[in-house]
């Protein structure tokens, strides 16, 4: 995009005193960077994706309350992780971490494993075991 075409729309970046870095072409055809306060279509797309994430978090929270899933699944979603990321942080294979999503397996986790999860999610053990806190 050209230097004078960088969008300066209102976005979440504006309220956080942040800017987007855009690559632009100046009048001589050279590439450089310029800051943008936001771009309306990008803001709409981000808002929609965050809404979908929030809906998914609420669905999983309900499944935890109904004892269909363990709190591990809830906190994974809440922290915008996927199974691969969580398994990497936990230091085990994905299939092992996925087993911890079952409430019966979660109840059998060792204190060392529970402590690892509390460190990963940066929460207390009480909060890990009871999502309503």
* Strand order of the biggest β-sheet: 1-2
- Helix residue percentage: 40-55%
Under CATH at level 1, the class of the largest domain stands as: Mainly Alpha
Instruction: Round the mean pLDDT to the nearest integer and report it.
Output: 89
Distance between the termini: 48 Å
Key words describing this protein structure:
mainly alpha, elongated, 133 residues, two-stranded antiparallel sheet, 2 domains, single chain, 434 Repressor (Amino-terminal Domain), 8 helices
Task: Describe the protein.
- The N and C termini lie far apart (48 Å).
- The protein has eight helices and two strands.
- A hairpin with a 5-residue loop joins strand 1 (20-25) and strand 2 (31-36).
- The chain is elongated and about 65 Å long.
- The mean pLDDT is 89.
- It has a two-stranded antiparallel sheet.
- The chain has two domains: 3-38, no CATH class; 50-129, 434 Repressor (Amino-terminal Domain) (Orthogonal Bundle).
- The chain has helices spanning 12-15, 40-65, 71-78, 83-90, 94-99, 103-106, 111-121, 125-129, and strands at residues 20-25, 31-36.
- The longest helix is centred in the middle third of the chain and has 26 residues, at 40-65.
- It has 133 residues and is mostly helical.
